[in-house]
Design brief:
The structure is a homodimer. By secondary structure, chain A is of the alpha+beta class. The first copy, chain A, is about 35% helix and about 20% strand. The N terminus of chain A is likely disordered. Chains A, B: This is NrtR DNA-binding winged helix domain-containing protein.
DNA sequence: ACGCCTTATAATCAGGTAGACTATAACTGG
DNA sequence: CCAGTTATAGTCTACCTGATTATAAGGCGT
């Protein structure tokens, strides 16, 4: 039966190398409360489901599962990563997970039962530096990471662990790098400081650190999505996928700040956005901002086609 | 049998959603002749094979297939893209392709029969702008792209096609963007100007354009790899994976130029490399360069760990 | 030996950009 | 009408980037 379809060059004669392919979605939106991810199971899982014969493509399969499980239609989609799950190997079958990042607006939502929006920072409380470095880093993470580093057998490993922890979490006077979200999660996993590490057979000697966990490796996938998005907003104008049709420059800035987890210098942000000609004034203003009424802008769509390189460089405050 | 393994949440009751997963490798090296890709079948295919139960991970499966088919051991690997092949759908089975980019040095090669190194630019002759814009762009591509654009039914589509062609191939005074390698191939495919388009059921009215083709969608995967690599060398120091242990700054520059397909200003390149502290002098020199003997450098490995952000920005000459 | 060619290496200069900061305008709410 | 809040414009400086020129050190042919 395996040999029935097309030129497989005979490489799999006599074997079945069937796998099951799972599609997993990280659906991101930003509201006043900050950056959110679409979840099911009361925030414990990302929308997902197997790739089926009925699906025209991977992306359409993903859209189908997300819409079925959450009622959320998806717009912008990009692939994140594909990995084979070592822990879910059957007798003659393995599972491959193909993860995607989707950007949407929360108001697109049609009401649906099982879904809920959860803040990124419920899962990664150490990632939000908008009000300066969160206390959890120095109070909780640093001592436990040092404990983990010093638990290594040889001096070289101890040194290396300390260095990696310092780079990832901006210790010892280093600068915070918001794009290292995935490295940070993986470091905490390696140090058995997140709940998921215990499930993986690691006997966690150290207690878990604050931050909500998810089933399987869903939190790891979310960390991948955050890192990718934080990197991408700097060279591609993807932020606008998260904005309503009309918005003020401060709303745009707040969205970028929510994603990157750090504050941006206001005049510089405005200058950059305006000189890049990514937006255009509509002439309308809104008085709902509290102070002087703000101009309402809209995304300049044509620019997307003309300058495929152009990005939205973010002037992020240094210290 | 499908239900036997672990919590599948009953989503696939009564169905088999098995797929076959293929691993495909774009193995890149650079020699004096330029950037090369490792091929089998006399340059008609990339190394590939199905993901099997015996493989510990996707990456190790890929390494196994490449080494078996070409004798080439792989060092640096990164995932490119995963896609479901619409054209290879069986009764109860589909094929998923997971493509990877690998960087290596050609001298790593152990001799092996079926393999051969082929220049990128045999497959994409329009991509090499090191000696200025290649004649093929204006002589072959432009007239056929215009013909294709004007063949559209409505004026809006005609305008859009012309704009896309101009952006991708730097027509009408636009600047060449080497990172658009994939868009260019896809545009030529859409215009039925590459041989592969005919196989896809498209009745090619227009004749094919110069440039060697490959089986299935292997040339498309190669284009993806080129675009990814051309983008990545600008923000991550991956070039060094392609360099011998000791090299001169000009050799490094020539390698970057080979990949990006365009020339770099020499003093600026040196300044950038040196101030980034990505390399260190060995003290040794080589006289094999023809003129004054050049310093031999080596890659400064420790920098990789310390500055995960740092890249190798390329000062690429504008006009 | 000499000059010429080739490449290596250092130094300089101008324009642009990014970051930080200051100043002024326009509205709301007490 | 004043205080608070936000919007918007402008400035100043350090650094980066692209471009160019100058000098050094080898090989090679005559």
């Amino acid at each position: 039966m395996d040999q029935a379809k097309g030129p497989r060059k005979g490489r799999t004669i006599g074997k079945t190398n069937d796998v099951n392919a799972d599609l997993i979605a990280v659906v991101v939106a930003v509201n006043d409360a900050g950056p959110c991810v679409l979840t099911i199971e009361q925030g414990a899982a990302l929308p997902s489901g197997p790739f089926e014969l009925a699906h025209r493509s991977l992306q359409s399969g993903l859209r189908a599962w997300v819409e079925l499980q959450t009622g959320q239609p998806l717009g912008y989609i990009e692939q994140l990563y594909t990995f084979a799950d070592r822990d879910r190997v059957g007798a003659n079958q393995r599972v491959i997970s193909i993860s995607y990042l989707a950007l949407t607006r929360e108001e697109d939502a049609g009401a649906s039962g099982r879904r809920s929006w959860a803040s990124w920072y419920d899962y990664f409380p150490w990632e939000d530096h908008r009000s300066g470095r969160p206390p959890i880093v120095l109070e909780e993470l640093r001592p436990r990471l040092i404990e983990w580093a010093d638990g290594a057998d040889d001096g070289a490993t101890r040194f290396d662990r300390r260095r990696r922890a310092a780079v990832a979490f901006a210790l010892d006077g280093r600068a915070w790098n918001e794009e290292l979200a995935l490295q940070r999660y993986e470091l905490l996993y390696e140090a058995a400081l997140v709940e998921e590490a215990k499930r993986g057979g690691v006997l966690a000697i150290l207690a878990s650190v604050p931050g909500r966990s998810m089933i399987a490796d869903h939190r790891r996938i979310l960390a991948t999505a955050i890192a990718r998005l934080r990197s991408k907003i700097k060279y591609r104008p993807v932020v606008f996928e998260l904005m309503p049709p009309l918005f003020t420059l401060l709303q745009l800035q707040r969205t970028v700040e929510a994603l990157s987890g750090r504050l941006i210098n206001k005049p510089n942000f405005r200058r950059l956005i305006e000189q890049q000609e990514l937006v255009e004034k509509t002439g309308a203003t809104t008085a709902e901002t509290g102070g002087r009424p703000a101009q309402l802008y809209r995304f300049h769509h044509t620019i997307l086609d003309e300058r495929p390189v152009a990005g939205t460089k973010l002037p992020i405050a240094r210290a």
